[in-house]
Amino acid sequence: MSLLKKTPLFCVAECSTFLDQLRHERSRESQIAASLYFRKKLAACQEPPYELIEPIICELIDCLQRPSSELQLNAAWALTNLACGSRQETHRIIASGGVSALMRLLAASVVSEVRNQAVWALGNLAADCSVCREQVRSTGLLELLVEMLELPEYQDSDARKIVIWCLANLLRGGINQLDLECVSRLISALHSTISLSVNGEILCDSVWSIAYLMDHAAADGERIDLLLAQPGIVVSIVALLKSDSVRALTGALRTVGNIITGTDEQTTAILDFGVLNDLKVLVDSDIHQVSRECLWILSNVAAGTAEHVTRLFSVEGLSDSVFRLCQDPSPRKRKEAYWVMVNAMMGAPAPLYDHLLSGGLAQILVLLLRENLDAALLDRTLNTIRAALEDRSPSRQYTIALFRRVGLVEQLLKVARGTMDSVNNSVHHALMNTFLEQASSILRQHFGISVDDGSQSNKKSSRDVSIQVRIKRS
């Protein structure tokens, strides 16, 4: 919600008078006084008269280019606070050339306070929405911020704090294309900040900057390799899994999770830092976001190699926690816990698979089909059930008997007939025919049941399409 709403408006007459004094024809003293007026009024969260917002924005932007550092500072400060307002005001600043004017100021000014204020204003603009963020990114600000972080004057915590806060806003949502040299320099600069910061916003923004930097990194894996190759940084991030700061903790979790979406080798590398023991503790957190994030990470570990699945369930008590969370009151938590179990079922070595199946996994599959929370999860589950029946020949008869005993056949019949319950049926309406065919095929091939009448059948059907490979979720 706009920070400028629900507060008294400027006095229209007074505002018009100071706007007139802000024009470049007026004396420098008058312009400075007028810019200070708007700076203080906007800092008090007062909204200008609607009809004057655009001319105020245009004059303030013009002031950024005038030869007075005091005037530039006041104008940049006022624009910073306007950018905290409504989306309409932010978009007006951008449409009026505010981003390019602030960038020119940042590049040209030799006054650190003016430069810092320009960074602050650009950070607020980038924070508004994805469209604004792309507009700010397109100016080359990211590369300029990297250079600033390497300058001696930006080793000071206050100046560095603003730059890294702006950086976090720019990187939010991830960037698909980014020069690897820039990534390497960023990782180095952020690592030094994390190493020197015990707590506070600068630590949180640094950790989240790295997390955002690793978003979409699994596509080529090179960014993750750069992070893993930076001496000491993974140790610092993993240590934050024990942080009392929820924001720092969740940033570290997201970073670990993004690494695990990478290659099997990268997953092994991060697991070697002992993160599974930390995740075991955090998955039972009372903080919903923390618990869900842990489950997401664990589901991607379970989507890895047989070794990864074995390591996952070798952590004492972790399987009990995941089984328990499959029945959590929160549907979102249940869904993530289901993903862990379904992925593990697909990738576990035979002894572990048998242990999980007899230990309650079959009942979890019944719950999963009954709830039908997510189209991708349902598709994954049906493929996993088929794989269990086709690829586990030594224990196939036991698996069939167990599936019958826990009620899985009845749930498969509901799927095949399109009569299963669903909290999100409309989402996968277009995929329903695929699910019907998958369930029908499983019932015919492995249980001898014809879906039309639910009777036993001796007919044999052709094999379905090949089983999906394991895919980690980013």
Automatic annotation (TrEMBL):
The entry's keywords: Protein transport, Repeat, Transport
Pfam families: Arm (PF00514)
Keyword Lipid metabolism: no
Biological processes, Gene Ontology terms: protein import into nucleus
Keyword Metal-binding assigned: no
ARM repeats: from-to residues: 97-128
GO molecular function: nuclear import signal receptor activity
GO cellular component: cytoplasm
SUPFAM superfamilies: ARM repeat
InterPro entries with a match to the protein in the record: ARM-like, ARM-type_fold, Armadillo, Importin_alpha
Ranges in a coiled coil: none
PROSITE patterns given in the database record: ARM_REPEAT
Superkingdom classification of source: Eukaryota
Protein family according to the UniProt entry: Belongs to the importin alpha family.
Name by which UniProt lists this protein: Importin subunit alpha
Species per Swiss-Prot/TrEMBL record: Globodera pallida
Source species taxonomy: Eukaryota, Metazoa, Ecdysozoa, Nematoda, Chromadorea
